[in-house]
Each structure stands twice: as C-alpha cells, then as structure tokens.
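Morning F.,

Quick status update on the modeling queue. The single chain you submitted on Monday has been processed. Sequence for confirmation:
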Amino acid sequence: MIITVYIIIISYFLLGVIGFYFINRKKKSSEARKSWIKTLVYFIIINILCLSIIINPVIFRALAILIIIMGFYELFGLFRDSGYVKKGFFLISIIFLALFSILFFLFSRMEKELIFFSFVILSVFDSFSTITGQLWGRKKLFPMISPNKTMEGFIGGIMVAVISAILLRGLIEVPVIRAIALGTGIAVFAFIGDLSASYYKRKYNVKDFSTLIPEHGGFLDRFDSLIAGGAWVTLLGWIIINYPV
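Structure tokens below.
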C-alpha cells in the first residue's frame, strides 16, 4: 500500500509540474528559473523524507531531530542578527517552537503508516495551495504577514488534501469521516505553522531565515508546516483515529 501511495505522490508532483509550467511561462526568465530550481529542490526533499519513512522510520526520526535543531538555530540566528531586539517576542517564539518540536518528535515515533499518511497530506496541501493560489488567487488572506497567501490557494489546498485523505485512508484504516477530519486538521495546522514562521520573519524584517536550502527560505521556511502538522497529529489526530464509535 505504501509503495502505491508513493507512486501517487509522484503523480501529484507531475500534476504540480504542469501547474508550475503555466505559472512560470508568465514570469520573467530569471524568476521562472528560480521557481524551477525551487520545485526541483522540493522534489528532492519530498523524496528523501518519503524514502526515509518507507525504508526505516528511524531515519525519518533522525531527520526530524535535524529539522528541529536547524529550526532553533535559524530562530536564534534572526534574533542575533537583529542585535537581540524584541526579547519578549523571541522568548515566546522559542517556547512555542519547543512545544511544537516535542510534539513533532513524538510524531516521528508513531506508526510508519500514520507518519506516511500525514506527510502525504502535508505535502499535497503545501504544493496545491501554492499552485491554486498562483493560478487563481485573488483575495489576500494576511497581506501584512504573508502577501502570497490567498483564500483561493487555501481552499484549493484544503480540497486536494481532503480528497487525498479519503483516497488514502486505507493506509491507516479509518472510515471516511475520520479521514476527512484528520486530513483537514493536518492541512489547517500546516497553514498555521507556515503563517507563524512568516510572522516571525516579518517581526525581524527579513525575507528568509537562511540560504541553507537553495531558493527556499531556510529549514524553518521549508519544514514549518511539517512541524506544526505533525504536532497536531500527536496532540489530537490520534484521538480521531482511535476514539471509539
């Protein structure tokens, strides 16, 4: 079943490539090039994480620890580069990241099937919210925090994520209604994680956390949704799956 889902992920990515083709052909050549590099890097990251779950979840657990460490490093890096201003905001941010990181690490210790299901939903939401937003986005959701996020993109991402949760519910053997609830929760928390990271950057007036990942805004910028979505699965998702009818 997991191998079948992995093939489905590749199919999703190919659909995404088609979407980005229509998006990028309207851009300047330099901007389109950066977009294609970003897409390629994202494809590599998705495959590394997918294969780590499939081959041995211990590998994914090690990657989760790396993501957490780099997240704290980048959070502190912006605070340091700012001259250590906004100390109260930084402290609150560190506490929230610590709580989410603990939950995310516990998520990395869950059953392989649940980790894989959650990761697929996260990836689908992340990709298709971007694609639908760039293709049809009009209404800005939080222009002062993340100007590229639109209502159309959010709705598009949620719809594809929920449909995917229904189609892939066999991975975790849950009825349709629970798959919908789980998929929706993962997508919403992924969005919250992404928005929170953007808010932190805006408070320190920077575009990226770092340049460690080509054409991405750093580890936190790439994995904020994974941390938050995984934390939600640990906190509430398992109740949805296991609560008696």
